[in-house]
Amino acid sequence: MNITRPDRFANHRIRGGAPEHAAIDGLIALHCALRFIPEAASSTLVGMNAIILSVGNELTLGQTVDTNSAWLSRRLAEVGVQVVMHATVADELEPLVREIRRASELADLVLITGGLGPTADDLTRDALAAVLGVELVLEERYLEQIRAFFAERGRPMPEANRVQAMFPAGSEPIENTCGTAPGIRARVGRAMVFVMPGVPREMRVMYDRDILPWLQAHTNGAVILARTIQTFGAGESEVGERIRDLMARGRNPTVGTTAQQAVIGVRIHAAGASRAEAEALLEQTTAEIRSRLGNIVYGQDADTLWSVVVRELIARGETLSTAESCTGGLVAKRITDVPGSSACFLEGVVTYANEAKIRLLGVPAELIAAHGAVSRPVAEAMAVACRERSGSDYALSVTGIAGPSGGTPEKPVGLVYVGLADADGCDVLQLRLGSTLDREEIRDRTTKTALNLLRLRLTVS
């Protein structure tokens, strides 16, 4: 039974791409035209490229974060598909039609998530039908599946859900085993288009069950492997300068940098005709980057400074305690965020007030009076006392001015002292983080610096 949906199109006028998108189109077309053929690879790899469209007003308004695109990009890389663009589109027919057309002209594969619900603002199926120049038709089999979904829950199917059993003529429905919104598969020009629900669980199940097998059959075993080398202690420009030649355009693996709260990640993406080929390229570039960056490298992928410190302490059979002022226990929190940290972390004390430093750590009152709480001597006294009283192998201390007030010309906001005590004595590091960082940034940067100081001690001793 065919059912047209003229009401869904009556108030919309479809236009071509806007002139302001011409420059963007040119850049994307250039990117897509430069199909990845790695000169260093032992065999030629012709990669499939993809564009991911995420649909929903809740996304364009910033009310919901788009996690689907990131998940899909990672999964596509596993089968050698290079994602060249993410686009977020509102629940409006005209922009949806425009972006589906554009993506289908530029990419081999278009994955769309969202806009398959039963309400008037769910327009993805209508937009795809408009691009294809066909009507929507009702598929009785899928209508019965939707009815059964509600019947299993003891409810009648609302009439609005009927639209979810409608598909562009000539397209192929994709069964949804955990929701009411079937997906859609259709060929649009050069591109294969897959439309999936926006609900993350439903999307992921559909991708794994129906789309991944199709991709595996069409990518001939190609794969893109990713790794991120995590560094701390140098700026992004310095890191980039040390590996400049490895970041050259057209190189395989591709190498790039990202900066997030003082951690500089070096991203590596290795493309190969097989997993073994990609792994060999990845390991070679990883080794070269680690060699050039030296001890600013603290780990890779999901490693954090605190997870690395905990792992190293446990491996050495050694322990840690902390004494904190301006960080308010953040160093201890980061350590104890790591599962298994009870094997190496003994205790932490927050001595925010001067009286607490005197009473809990035994810092001499005259020392604070002479130098101030934010000083090298007080940081040293805190660390030494913390280690002695807890019986730990190492102790970290922090005292500083996190702001936004409390600074003076002699001791400005962002002045912090970090102490590290062990059996051989105590070293104190002065930080001048500046007033451009806010309170939370100063506390975060201080915590990372303290843990990095300990990491370096553990890895060189």
State the main characteristics.
461 residues, alpha/beta, Molybdenum Cofactor Biosythetic Enzyme, Chain A, Alpha-Beta Plaits, Maf protein, six-stranded mixed beta sheet, five-stranded mixed beta sheet, 17 strands, 38% helix, 23% strand, disordered N terminus
Written overview of the protein:
The chain has 461 residues and is an alpha/beta fold. The protein has three domains: 6-218, MoaB/Mog-like domain (Molybdenum Cofactor Biosythetic Enzyme, Chain A, 3-Layer(aba) Sandwich), CATH 3.40.980; 223-300, Alpha-Beta Plaits (2-Layer Sandwich), CATH 3.30.70.2860; 305-460, Alpha-Beta Complex (Maf protein), CATH 3.90.950. 38% of the residues lie in helices and 23% in strands. The protein has helices at 22-33, 57-60, 68-77, 93-106, 124-132, 140-151, 200-218, 236-242, 275-293, 305-316, 330-336, 354-361, 365-371, 376-390, 439-460; strands spanning 49-55, 82-89, 109-113, 136-138, 166-168, 172-174, 183-188, 191-196, 223-232, 254-260, 263-272, 297-300, 320-324, 345-350, 394-400, 415-422, 425-432. The strands form four sheets. It has a six-stranded mixed beta sheet, with helices on both faces. The protein has a five-stranded mixed beta sheet with strand order 14-13-15-16-17, sandwiched between helices. A four-stranded antiparallel beta sheet has the order 10-11-9-12. β16 (415-422) and β17 form a beta hairpin. The N and C termini lie far apart (77 Å).
